[in-house]
Amino acid sequence: MNYGEVKRPDPGSNADWSAYAAAYDLLSKHNPEYKALMRDFEDFLSGIETPGIIYDVGGGTGNYTDIAARLCPGSRICLVEPDPGMMQAARAKLAARKNVTYQNVGLESAEAPEKADLVISVHSLYAMPDPRQRLVDIRRMLRPGGLLFLVDLGRPMDVQDWRRYLFTTLKKEHGLIRTLEIFWQARQIAKQNQAIFKAQMNGTYWTHTPAEIASAVTAAGFEILDQRSVYRDYSDLLVCRAAP
């Protein structure tokens, strides 16, 4: 595996996102690092002018769309997600959010008749076909000066490392028995994270250093306003502005 290298997609090595969807929201309940990302997004939204139009691309089960809909009730939000299982979970979660619409397609097929003020992409770009071109697609969705909130998994997903971290953290909070129950409930997450690791290793999913994703974002037509490593240094968080 070489950082920055992406091969032609091999569907046989990809994660099963529909299987992942059934247990995915255990992350928002029990993974402190995932909860920290959600707080980062809340802080980001609280510090900007309310966006009129928002796209959440690769929006999964809708956690970030839900935050945006709650904090920006006057915004029009479109969740773009190709996986049917993820989309079903998102629609159920967001059923009461009247300012949310849906496109059950990949980013490359998404329609954006009106330019967005904000695009959200959290832990999805790395798994998309041709992620550098997808960054160009995101730039086209945004008005000049529009913002991109991007979090992307860049380094190989070491499942054993995450298992040790979560077991230690959850045991302190919940005790041994409850921790074992959570691990049993989350076994599908571990299985799909193994698939993500495999796809990263064979080049199907994009891996990158912080410098490489910064270069790709800049080449797509963005100015980086903030960048830092997050998610125990496995991921990169970038806040970007679409260049004129």
Strand residues, percent: 15-25%
Give the overall shape, derived from the CA principal axes. globular
H/E element order: HHHEHEHEEHEHHHHEE
| Strand-pairing-aware structural class | alpha/beta
What composes the largest sheet?
Answer: 7 strands, mixed
Mean pLDDT score: 92
Low-confidence stretches: 7-12
Instruction: Describe the strand arrangement of the main beta sheet, using strand numbers.
Output: 3-2-1-4-5-7-6
> How many extended strands?
7
Q: Give me the CATH fold name.
A: Rossmann fold
Account of the protein in words:
This protein has 244 residues and is an alpha/beta fold. The protein has a single domain (17-157, 206-242), classed as 3-Layer(aba) Sandwich (Rossmann fold), CATH 3.40.50. The protein has helices spanning 17-24, 26-30, 32-46, 63-71, 84-93, 131-141, 159-174, 176-185, 187-201, 210-219, and strands at 53-57, 76-80, 100-103, 116-122, 142-153, 222-230, 235-242. Helix 1 packs parallel to helix 5 (84-93), helix 1 packs across helix 9 and helix 3 (32-46) packs parallel to helix 4 (63-71). It is globular. Mean pLDDT is 92; it is low at 7-12.
